[in-house]
Amino acid sequence: KIITGTTKPTTGTVEAGGRISALLELGMGFHPEFTGRQNAYMSAQLHGLMASEVDEKIQAIEEFAEIGDYFDQPVRTYSSGMQVRVAFSVATAVRPDILIIDEALSVGDAAFQRKCFARIESFLRGGCTLLFVSHSTETVKILCDKALLLYNGNIKLIADAKSACDEYERLLYGIKKVDKSNVFMSKYDQTILISNEQQYGNGQAMIIDCWMEDLSGERINVVPSGAVV
């Protein structure tokens, strides 16, 4: 919020250059009685687009959101997923210099998330800076090169995305070192267990073996699409 200018810092300053687009809070800036189209016009102008630019982009915004006739229905009738479809479509209608996303994509369905990731990746290839705030470590590792981990309001770590996510999970779940010499390992899982980088938990329970079987009870490593196991 400080970077986008909606909140002023108590002390210090933030400098950011270029066009900034942000998805901070779901439905932020949307009027529940206005339609998706009307809100798209308002939101796009708040993002710095001229009315004539919105006229040019509104069809693309509607098509990317993929909510059909609901685009001309009041936003109060929308699900959270539909709201984020419109919000993301508006925020990315024009490639920003800085794109800020705070958890908003977590409410979208898988297919729409893939569309969003594809658009974000195309922006990144074009030189856009992404500031992505999330508790989803897998999404952070997919979208980000570097990550900043906050702990009790302070910077705990600035590192590559994977290292920061590993540290976050250690803080979240705790970690207990295990003496592998005392752990039973079948011939099927030795390589997997030895290469495992992190072990979490309090040690009260331990997974020592797991596998997939086909319908005849044979262990398998590959599952064809559509197969039943």
Question: What descriptive keywords fit this protein?
Answer:
single chain, 229 residues, alpha/beta, three-stranded parallel sheet, two-stranded antiparallel ribbon, globular
SSE arrangement:
Elements: E1 20-23, H1 36-46, H2 51-65, H3 80-91, E2 98-102, H4 110-125, E3 129-133, H5 137-143, E4 146-151, E5 154-160, H6 161-173, H7 190-195, E6 212-213, E7 219-220
Parallel strand pairs: 1-2, 2-3
Antiparallel strand pairs: 4-5, 6-7
Helix pairs in contact: 1-2, 1-3, 2-3, 5-6
Q: How would you classify the quaternary structure?
A: single chain
Count of runs of 4 or more consecutive helical residues: 7
Cα-atom Rg, whole angstroms? Answer: 23 Å
What's the number of extended β-strand segments?
7
Q: Based on CA inertia axes, which overall geometry fits?
A: globular
As laid out across the biggest beta sheet, the strand order is 1-2-3
Structural class, please?
A: alpha/beta
Report the portion of residues in β strands.
5-15%
Largest sheet: 3 strands, parallel
CA(first)-CA(last) distance: 48 Å
Q: How much is the average pLDDT?
A: 84
> Uncertain spans, ≥5 residues at pLDDT below 50?
181-196
The residue fraction in helices comes out at: 25-40%
Sketch the topology as an H/E string, one letter per element. EHHHEHEHEEHHEE
